[in-house]
Amino acid sequence: MKLRYITFSLVLIVLSLGFTRCDDNDMNSNETGSLRIEFDNHVGEDDLELNKDYVNSSGETFKLTKLNYYISNIRLRTTTGVEYVVLQDSSYFLVMEDHEESQAITLNNIPAADYDEITFTIGVDSLRSTMDVSKRTGVLDPAQGHDGMYWTWNSGYIFFKMEGISPSAPVDQENKFYYHIGGYGGFDSPSLNNIRETTVSMGSARAEVRGNKSPEVHFHVDILELFKNPTTFQIADYPAVMFSEFSKNISENYVNMFKYDHVHN
Amino acid sequence: MSICSSMIMFTTRKYFNNVIRTGLSVALCVLVVCCSDPDEIEDPDENKEPTPLEIVSPSNFPPPVYDLSNNPVTKEGFELGKRLFYDSRLSRTNTISCGFCHMQPNAFTHHGHDVSHGVDDKLGRRNSLPVQNLLFYKTFFWDGGVHNLDLVPLNAIANEVEMDEEVDNIIDKLRGDANYGVQFKRAFGSEEITSTRFLQALSQFLATMVSSNSKYDLYVRKENNVTLTDIELQGLELFKSKCASCHSTDLFTDQSYRNNGFSSLTDLDRDKGREEITLNPDDHGKFKVPSLRNVEYTAPYMHNGKLQTLEDVLNYYASGVKDTPTLDPLLKQSGNPGFELTDDEKKSIIVFLKTLTDERYLSDRRFSEY
């Protein structure tokens, strides 16, 4: 009995030492800071401007009139592999090309540590998509629509919305093209699921979050990836993709848009 | 008095019914009236806590689906929701209210319209469904695309052939009306008009709209010694054998989606039904099985409103069903699609269906516009 007690105590001590070491190196539980992530939308290497002509990989000229997407469920990983999950209630953002302030998101109360990997969802998880409306405020308020980022006829968020004009798009829709991508998997029977998650690695760089340091990580978001990686398609063939099977190809492409660019520590 | 009548209306649990039947309800009414401030509507104490409004499930209904604990119904929230329901400012043109297409004498459907016309006289593609017992529904609309009562109004508001309005604009309009500020304060504690409160108030009104006092209900709950006539009973038996596998439970719908073969190929081109929500080809041409409560008054019938009378509906099932790949298996059990019905059987089924009429609901002043 006594031996057991001692063994148990020893295990506890070793375990707690382990935790303490981990804390000291990676996350000082008392110290927290902020992390900013900037989503710099690009067309190839050029900074994206709305209503400006660009050419996609199929050689089609196009301009964008709208680009909005939800970023949610953010997780950070330290250089030593410890994962920090951003508090769910503070982990939903809507990035809008025509609202500059929406393109930089700030995560507060992040444990001080060196981070080199950021994982996030493009879209909104199914749980939040079906939560009571009182728990879906701000950018998630289904009543406010936020630039039409919600389908009222098929209750669910539009995760990603890109609209533009291209001579390749049909004349009878005024040369406009639309990609409204959503679908959280269906409420009472399985349906379209376009929830996509990506992990952006910072390579050898790191974001040093400290109580007195708020690093700013910049993502290079290349919208040309949407047309080609891995499924190449033409605006001419798919000038309007909304709640349909083909939307899966688009979400599987745009998940590859997000690359690490640089960090300000 | 209104608190009292609502309590009686919603308190249909068996034991309470006994209480009502033994006449204690009178005493209770007096008690409730005495306890409540008779002037509370005319002379509001703005800081007063809202008065809870109890909603009790009828004993013959399945359990409610809507979670009332997230949005407890109060008298003040109900009154606000009712005002919103009848306010045409919810539409872009300030002409179409919810009540416009959902008229009480017709169990809140759009009488005489196969499909409804919304703003600028634009036509929809589906028949307006009754507003009743929504508290008990898992999904809403003919295709079940909406999964929560709170989100139901958004569909009609956003639809460009219905109200074609944005909630932000509606809220701006409501803020310009001081009376709304007062009502929001009474219902939610402050004058602030938010989209969440807007939806919650509408839900409070909708959740209260329970139709459960038809002749049939009184008969199955053994209340007031109500009995059915021989022909009604005959109709009930036929209904059980021919119709109740889809129109099941005392909601008279199993809430599933089925293809009853009614869509023509042209119809299917413009309305694929449930398939539009699931993208599943097996759901092609399927629509929600509608409840048959108050069906006597909800003509025209079917998802596109193309049948005018209950006789037409039964004639269709007896001899009009066309076989299509997703036709419901239950309609394929005999040699010909549909099911066999003699003229007498049709008559008695219709007589039975009329016992599902809840006159009290159709004229209940609590839900009336004026």
Structure description:
The complex is a heterodimer of chains A (265) and B (370). By secondary structure, chain A is mainly beta. Chain A has one domain (2-264). Chain A is built from 3 helices and 15 strands. Chain B has 370 residues and is an all-alpha fold. Chain B has 3 domains: 1-36; 45-210, Cytochrome c-like domain (Cytochrome Bc1 Complex, Chain D, domain 2), CATH 1.10.760.10; 215-356, Cytochrome Bc1 Complex, Chain D, domain 2 (Orthogonal Bundle), CATH 1.10.760.10. Chain B is 38% helix and 1% strand. Chain B has 16 helices and 2 strands. Chain B has helices at 2-10, 14-21, 24-35, 75-85, 98-101, 152-158, 167-175, 178-188, 195-208, 215-220, 230-242, 265-270, 275-278, 310-319, 343-353, 359-362, and strands at residues 257-258, 287-288. A two-stranded antiparallel sheet of chain B has the order 1-2. The radius of gyration of chain B is 22 Å and the shape is globular. The relative contact order of chain B is 0.13. Mean pLDDT of chain B is 88; it is low at 1-43. Chain A binds chain B through residues 130, 132-134, 137, 141-145, 150, 152-155, 186-192, 243-245, and chain B through 67, 70-71, 138-139, 141, 144-148, 150-151, 154-155, 157-159, 166-168, 195-196, 198-200, 276-280, 283.
Which helices and strands appear, and what pairs or packs with what?
The complex is a heterodimer of chains A (265) and B (370).
Chain A: H1 2-25, E1 28-43, E2 46-47, E3 54-55, E4 61-78, E5 83-85, E6 92-96, E7 104-122, H2 126-129, E8 150-151, E9 156-165, E10 176-182, E11 196-201, E12 207-209, E13 216-222, E14 240-241, H3 247-254, E15 258-264
Parallel strand pairs in A: 1-13, 10-14
Antiparallel strand pairs in A: 1-2, 1-7, 3-4, 4-5, 4-6, 4-7, 4-9, 7-11, 7-12, 8-9, 9-10, 13-15
Chain B: H1 2-10, H2 14-21, H3 24-35, H4 75-85, H5 98-101, H6 152-158, H7 167-175, H8 178-188, H9 195-208, H10 215-220, H11 230-242, E1 257-258, H12 265-270, H13 275-278, E2 287-288, H14 310-319, H15 343-353, H16 359-362
Antiparallel strand pairs in B: 1-2
Helix pairs in contact in B: 1-3, 4-8, 4-9, 11-15
